[in-house]
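subagent[fold] <- orchestrator: predict structure for attached chain, return tokens only, no commentary.
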Amino acid sequence: MKHIKKIGAIASVFAIVIALSAFNFQQEKPQEEPKPTNLKVLPKNISHDELISTMKEFNVALGVKCGFCHAPSKEDPKKLDFASDENHKKEIGRAMIKMTQKINKNILIVAGIAHRPKQFLVKLVMAAKKNQKWS
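subagent[fold] -> orchestrator:
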């Protein structure tokens, strides 16, 4: 009788193992950050973290929030449509980035240096003042 109980217990464990192995247990993959779209000045292959960091620098430098340059979403006006070009201030921001890139390139040529030490680079902070009005 004890043998039958042991065999029954082993068979039950074996059945549970087989049943569980039928399920495909996969580790949850980390959710990929959405790829930015409509990048016209910043590198198309910019990482999500680098893009967010750059945008935060603009927030601090200009003393504004994201909605200053980015248009509200048409589906949900409480959210922003980062790809939209409807807010003309976004184009002004792009022009400022291009201007800064051009100045930095010229500084590197004149200085004859291959690397970019921070003291030589012009930042957007230099191109905009917090109290300046944008029209």
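orchestrator: received. Logging for downstream: Residues 48-127 form one domain. The chain has a mean pLDDT of 76.
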